[in-house]
Amino acid sequence: MTIQTNPFITANWRPEHCDPNNWGYKPSTYGVDGVELVGKPHMMLFNDMTGTWTNPARVERITLSKLKDLRDNIHEFGINTKEGRMIYVDADDMSTINGNHRKELRTDRRIDIRGWMVQLVRFKNRQAKRDFANISNIDMTLPHNNPSQKDVEAGVRDALNDFDRRPYKKEIDELIQSYGRHLGGKIRSKILKKIMWELQKQGKVNASERYTTYGKDTVKLYVNDHQDDEWIDEILSNENEISHVMTVYNFKSDLGALLEKNELAVSRKKPLNLLIAVEEPTGDDTLCKKRDRVFDEILEYWEDLLLLSMGMTDKRINRYHFAWNHPDAKHRFLPQDNNDEMKTRELIYVKNRTFN
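RE: above sequence
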């Protein structure tokens, strides 16, 4: 008589783990077009997951620390079918869409796990597979290895490679929102600015995108690409000069850093030189107006607030206490008009009231 044995049952993987009805996770297409669930969830040996596929939206691959955390968690608490996730497997080539760390457990000496609960899935095309891989990998409620910022950037870049035309900023933003919905708004904004900068540098920005916007990271990219610029060489990169990068969209949170630089410049009796990026104009607004307002309104408002708080009512004279108003200060604005300024990419001088 032949005795049938269950190849999945070990000290760590018990019979109840083999029943899909015991799993709280419910398979989904996550609303991605071109994705089809094939059949019902079932057990599958890791050795039968024979296909190989590299997710272009995963820069960070297998890491020993994450693998150790997973192993230790299972060793201490067992398999949690109520909160654990299933592995998605491509029905056509048997490649895993997720679960790479779990697959690595098959060679672990401390625990004995030979397979996992899986859901077969079929994809209409490469884009559907990539989109599904990234979106299905996000879990907002459980401790989980969500796609990192670098993963989201890589996924968006790969998606843009499938465009047969220059993408619109709105389309790029929608990809970032979709792939990075678990990330904070500031991080998503940083990714958008970085990718838009890269496309602009490559001449691949859609003609309808009038302006380039900057965050601190993209200012660094500009500076690194323009080390031969006279102002950057003589002011920004000169350790004997004091300068500060100012992005208007982030001005309030950056105010402390600006005042620290001001104190340093004042103590050394030196000017404070500003490299400034403004927000994208809307409506009837223009870059020129926004740049003028940096000095005429934004800095002047904070000057007034600080001076009056110290009892200095003669604001006209006391404005010279701010090192950015030093007569030798040399300020520059970053080029942002894609139709004009970005062709030469030269820094732009705007007069700071009557000071410099």
